[in-house]
Structure formats: structure tokens, C-alpha cells
Design goal:
The protein is an alpha+beta fold. It has three helices and nine strands; from the N terminus they run ββββββαβαβαβ. About 20% of the residues lie in helices and about 30% in strands. A hairpin with a 2-residue loop joins strand 3 and strand 4.
């Protein structure tokens, strides 16, 4: 791990500088594994596949729902539709959801953060 101490949470809004090799670079740090980029900061995320995502995987999103208008979900190298139960759960939070491969999701997130939008991202790491 390069840069400052990293304990699974980096406060503040950060662009995703790079993705691949099973992780991400942001805020002058590297992280192996998936991440949640939320209004409060970037958190390590246990998800490894979009196939079985459920409401419990998005509890941190629920906690910050008032500050999120759009959630971008990066599903890995391929587009994987979210299950209907999860879509309903996110709809109840009044959060719009866009699902796309992780690379496109990271790029879209960066553009929307730069525009000052109320956006969050759930990004599954890719090799």
C-alpha cells in the first residue's frame, strides 16, 4: 500500500485514478478489492461478484441515501443486471441506479463527481 495509512475508509470525495489488477487507485493510495465511493468517502467493499448482490451489500448506501441521487454500480468486466429485489430496495431509498461494467462505471463516476453531482458508486474490482 503506497501513500498515507489506509484502514478501509478514506474520507472525502475522490476521483478513481485507476482500476484493474484486482483493485483501484485513488487519493494517492492503492486498494485491492471492491469499493464503495460514497459522499462521506471511499470504503472497502466485500462484494466480489454482481451475481448475488442483495440489500445487505448496500447498507452503507442506505446510511447516506439523503446525500445520493444516483448510484452507479460497476459489475465487473461484463454488465450484470441487478436482481429485482435489490432494484426495489434501492428504489425505496429514492436513489436512481445505473448498472454498467466497472470501467465505464468508474469513468462515469469521475465525471459526475467533477460536476458536483450527488453520486455514489459501488465498484466490483476487475483483474
Amino acid at each position: 500500500m503506497a501513500g498515507p495509512r489506509y484502514d478501509g475508509f478514506v474520507p472525502g470525495r475522490h476521483q478513481i485514478d485507476a482500476y484493474g489488477n484486482g483493485g483501484f487507485r485513488f487519493a494517492d493510495m492503492s486498494h485491492k478489492g471492491s469499493i464503495l465511493a460514497l459522499p462521506s468517502g471511499i470504503k472497502a467493499w466485500e462484494a466480489t461478484s454482481a451475481q448475488n448482490l442483495g440489500p445487505a451489500d448496500f447498507l452503507p448506501v442506505r446510511a447516506e441515501a439523503d446525500d445520493i441521487e444516483l448510484l452507479i454500480v460497476g459489475t465487473g468486466t461484463e454488465l450484470v443486471p441487478l436482481g429485482e429485489h435489490l432494484r426495489w430496495h434501492l428504489r425505496e431509498l429514492r436513489i436512481a441506479v445505473e448498472v454498467m461494467p466497472t470501467g465505464a462505471a468508474a469513468r462515469t463516476y469521475n465525471v459526475l463527481v467533477a460536476e458536483g453531482r450527488k453520486v455514489a458508486a459501488a465498484l466490483i474490482a476487475v483483474a
